[in-house]
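Structure tokens please, single chain.
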Amino acid sequence: MDRESFLHVLQIARLRLTEEEIEEFLKQFEEIFSLMERVKTIEFSESDEEVVENPLREDRAEKPGEDVTSVFPVKKDRYLEVPKNL
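Here you go.
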């Protein structure tokens, strides 16, 4: 990234940096962009592809093991009373 483009981005983002900070960021951007260029040159073959399997269990319906309403102390008709959460 050249200096003018970086200063334009700073202006759009309404950021203010000192000259030292600008120089430091420009160096870091140059390193990042050079690494990105190196990654672009890596060639892969079909044998490098990895098969991804679903690690999750099969989704199936199960009945609960116990009556979940048993943990509520107060029951009235078909309603359960719970403590206030205020």
